[in-house]
Amino acid sequence: MSVPTQEQASSTVTIDALLQRAAQYLPEERLGIIRDAFEFARECHEGQVRKSGDAYITHPVAVAELVANLELDHLALAAALLHDVQEDCGIPNEVLAEKFGPRVAKLVDGLTKLDKLPMNVATIDPGRGSVQAQNLRKMFLAMAEDISVVLIKLCDRLHNMRTLWAFPDDKQKRIALETQEIFAPLANRLGVWQIKWELEDLAFRYLEPEKYREIADLLASKRVTRERVIADASEILREHLDAAGIKAEITGRAKHIASIYQKMARYSAQSKSFDQIYDLLAIRVFVDNLSECYHALGIIHALWRPIPGQFDDYIGNPKDSMYQSLHTTVVGPGGRPLEIQIRTYDMHRVAEYGIAAHWRYKEGGKQQGKDEERIAWLRQLLEWQRDLAGADEFVESVKTDIFHDQVFVYTPKGDVLDLPAGATPLDFAYRIHTDLGHQTVGAKVNGRMVSLNSSVKNGDVIEIMRSRTSKGPSRDWLNSNLGYVRTTHSKEKIRQWFRKQERAQNIEVGRDMLEREMRRLGVEISDRQDQLLTMFNFTNWDDFLAALGYGGVSTNSIARRVGALLAEEEAAEEPPPALPQKEAPAKLGGPGMRVLGVGNLLTTMARCCNPVPGDQIVGYVTRTRGVTVHRADCHNILNEEEHERIVEVEWGTVTKLYPVSVRIEAWDRVGLLRDITTVVTEDKVNMVGVRTNENGDGSVSILATLETSGVEQLSRLLSRIEIIRGVRSVERNQDRRRPKGEPAPLRRAN
Asked: Which residues fall within 8 angstroms of residue 367, CB to CB, at 6 or more apart?
């Protein structure tokens, strides 16, 4: 049997299914341009083959079918069929405009430009961050001009993800990461649920294949039981709704693998099991009108006991993506938790198609004004981006202000504002007015005083206390470790305020902040000036200090990048010439370290200097305890006479916590130690030892040993301890003398 050529395979591809789907909502006279676009695209792509081995024309046809499922107009369908002819076939935009009209040409041009933009903002580095940020900004600008551009792009990405198996592993992970970070959240923000969940699942499949298979197997093993419970519950509920005169459609709802994994991760932190995920068992109830939604809810709660804290009214408080539904979880048949969603058919269409439900085909192509208002958040974002200092801030704004869940809060007058989940009263104040934010001295939530870095919740009534004699915002508000502001909009307004201050003052403040941060981390500034300038794209030291002073550069970003730099230097160091490989100890087992490039050796952390990941380290070969790991500047190492016993050590994969000693100087008071331990616990850090010394002048010195995962976590924790009332200073303990009673593996020089 002969194998068909690519030309023959291409000629067998048809658009019968596409035309059949389009004819369900488009008049017959609108289908002609779709046929013409297909013939033109097939001719242009003749002989081209996809990585999967299929004729290339199969891809634009599949994308157009996905677009038709969103019921976009005939011009969008034509653009979907033609979306690759400009880039892959060299067809000029003018030719498309002449053959298919200006809007089709503009859509194809917009899609071509988006295809050329690397969207991966998850791994931004100093060298490429600005370029990638500008690319993301261009995508949103294109979306504001014609939402069809991004809806077609989402369909294009979905089909590419369905055929991602044909690509090499490294490209699979890169594309999957872009999908997870940008396209799936974008589909969610636009409310296009049917695309959002599949993008999430496909990205998860390639990024975490083992976990994907594990959850898929768990679901498969319980599928029969789950289906039986859903069928029994649906039958019982249908009988009660019929008895009440409510005509309803009841269906089971599939829980998607990526969302199960996210929920499992949250439940694991609460010591809950897979079986305790309530919405694994879920049904949907579709009714004709709004009043029947609440009537059905009453019947359900009378039939089965609702689980406290598991009810959400997204009809009265719709999500920002326009999603509306009632969610409740009850103790269903057999005592199993059962999630039930109740909505009208119109609400379901919006839930599945999101913004596309309001951008569907209308005779004459006219858009209603209310539809334009449904992406007011996008236009607001584009307004904000004019205030942002640079494109990187725009990326941060997208990821924090747009792609996060929203909470709805009230002003004292009853006006409603939407804020990203996790926003604070200060974010609320800056959203109202910049001057109100600058003058904030306190806040009340639901009539009670709260701290300015507390998170607001849905339905909170927030009242801001201001002082017109205020000297302006505090620099602590820009410290992300302290959590005073979470939105990029607020941060940029604060930065603008400090940027207007005297340059000399900003330089001085920046110098103090840098010295304090480096002292905490045990790093010498004088050895790192050139590297810091390169890392943050500055050419002048005073400019860098000024940016640090007004908040353009944050101390936690310094800690993160310096820690990564130290780790790279450690890995790149050449072994000393006097260290023969044969003197490496035998493999005895031990995680997380590599000695002379070899893993799985017995290693212990030296108690005299307590190194943590990010520190420069060396090893000392002991006679009975394997290799002891010290900081490179440890007093014991610097004074060691037997240099041949000092070996090269590098950090491996961090799979454990590392103890580090910190010194806290504070004014003594009742509750001081309690407040410190509370901050440590909130950051999920274990305090394994603490010793206090009274200084005789009302102050106290506290030496604490904390188990941290590395330099970045340590920096964040020290910042939070420093603002506790009464604390004067906190830094890494530089006393490297061996604690009393500790064995002495190193012999000091005289």
From this structure: 359
